Prior knowledge:
Blueprint: H1 9-12, H2 16-24, H3 34-41, E1 55-62, E2 72-80, E3 83-88, E4 97-100, E5 104-108, E6 110-115, H4 143-150, H5 157-173, E7 176-183, H6 189-202, E8 205-210, H7 224-231, E9 239-244, H8 252-261, E10 266-271, H9 277-285, E11 293-299, H10 303-311, E12 315-318, H11 320-326, H12 333-338, E13 343-345, H13 357-377, H14 388-395, H15 397-402, E14 420-424, H16 436-442, E15 449-454, E16 457-461, E17 464-465, H17 470-488
Parallel strand pairs: 1-4, 1-5, 6-7, 7-8, 8-9, 9-10, 10-11, 11-12, 12-13
Antiparallel strand pairs: 1-2, 2-3, 5-14, 14-15, 15-16, 16-17
Helix pairs in contact: 2-3, 5-6, 5-17, 9-10, 13-14, 14-16
The chain binds zinc ion.
Amino acid sequence: MPGLTCxxxxxxxxxxxxxxxxxxxxSFIASGSNAAQDxxxxxxxxxxxxxxxxxxxxxxxVLSMDAAVGNFAVGDVxxxxxxxxxxxSKIETGDAAVINASGKxxxxxxxxxxxxxxxxALRSQLANAIxxxxxxxSARLNYYEAVLQQASMVYRPEDVYINELFGSLSQLDAGVxxxxxxxxxxxxxxxxxxxxxxxxDAGRRSVFGYFEGWGDRAQYPQDAKRIKQQYFSSDDQLMTxxxxxxxxxxxxxxxxKIGRELGLPIAxxxxxxFGMQETFDTLGASGQFGPDNIFIHMTGMSDKGWxxxxxxxxxxxxxxxxxxxxxxxxxxVQKAIDLGMSTSxxxxxxxxxxxxxxxxMRGLITLQRMLANEKALAGEDYPELMTTLEAIRTATMGxxxxxxxxxxxxSLTPGKQADILLLNAExxxxxxLNNVPGAVVTLMERSNVDTVxxxxxxxxxxxxxxxxxxxxxxxxxxxxxxxIFEAAGLERDLFAN
Length: 497
Ligand SMILES: [Zn+2]
């Protein structure tokens, strides 16, 4: 990894020799430990991991998220060369490596269209905080000042790397097979390289969102050309790129121009409390929105601005729990539905809320139904109530559309990449299985994510993430946290309220 002093890639792969001893000693095997990984990996079906061998996921409840493919109470999914080749009630193959999916829900991986992974070391530090200082004593610790103006300024490339890697692995564990990372941490080309390396080393499908950085060595936005050429010259890889173009920052016009010259989608935060409604309306009125725009939040925007966005075919990324928690404004769930816009879910910041997809889907569906139910109770006309299947669609196909990856991921469609989850439906919190989308949205959580495949490669198996020394990475992340807090002058108080 260029310019970094932290561990080389091979160091992250655990040494199975030592771990076997622990397993053989019969000691308690903690989930996430090397011994637990080895124990799980020893049960991988024969032939898994052989690139020439097909994989048959057999006998699961298949939720394809593709109406043309349909769903199967008991069905099979066949994978070849990292792609889905067939989905049917029963597939006969003589030679495939077989994954038994009995008792599991088989569905496409979740997609998160906006996640600031560089903040992983700051987890829960701003659990009680709002977005910007409103003058009250309780807002003394607020996101804009503590994270964007303090903490983010002291990140070194090695901090970026470990935060990106750890955040990626945590979401992979939770079934999020694709993310768009939005890290305002590009203080130098080395910072950008470290962000890309961290995501790449996690082995997950990731979209590198190239946003701003600060200081003498910041090269945003013009370094986009080098980055695209060096890392993203091919579309046939796990990682792709999106250009950040924040309209509340000076010079966004250049970022939009470079992004469009490079053929990259343009993503930006659209938050009324940042005073950007007028700029947004002006851009919309002058015809500068397009289907390549990813508008994050869309809180506090005018009806006119919404119409420009909808007419242009722009995409909306909603971070429902964060928007409610941090005062971005009312999550515009119903507005996006009423305008028929392509919409996805995004986790935003773990300094304030978890990045698991189940929390996202429950936030989305309960808010939409609460608002509709209030209207119904008041005797008013009310919109259709969102269903659990619609919530899952937003968290899968919606995200794929937003990141321009819907020809590759988002559903179990033959020809698409095999980004697939097996969710355990026989656990204490779910059994007996009576409704598949209902169980996923209203009952499940991270512990139900049994198996995760990305492009046909097994990343999590029998509840264990494979291939990483998580203990070592946790220590690395804590050391990064120590540096960030000390250098930024952030107070550490485990019981701050
Ligand atoms: Zn954000």
